[in-house]
Amino acid sequence: MISKGGCPKTMLSIKDALEAVEGRWKLLILFSLSECPKRFGEISKNVNGITDKTLSKELKLLESNKLIKREVFDSFPPKVMYSITEHGKSLERVLDELHFWGLLHRKEVLSDN
After folding, report:
1. What does the radius of gyration of the chain's CA atoms come to, in whole angstroms?
2. Is the peptide bond between 77 and the residue preceding it cis, with omega within 30 degrees of 0?
């Protein structure tokens, strides 16, 4: 796609996708939830380096984009679980490609040193 250029609609769809997963943390949170539903603290431990404030904000944004689901259980103390939605799972190929590209990029960058 990069070598062929694209139409304005292509640019718009890429912009929409980037806005849904922009930032340093969203894809890592989705990757963490791809294994199984988790509580806030479990996600925080999985996503190394994220602050609780940032995690809370990112979870809300992922939920508003229908990439994750927040489920509150009526218990004491209240229990909240986060899980990836089918829409969120549709990013699996994107994550796979980012993984492979990241491996190539790391090799390319480190081989110059």
Report:
1. 17
2. yes
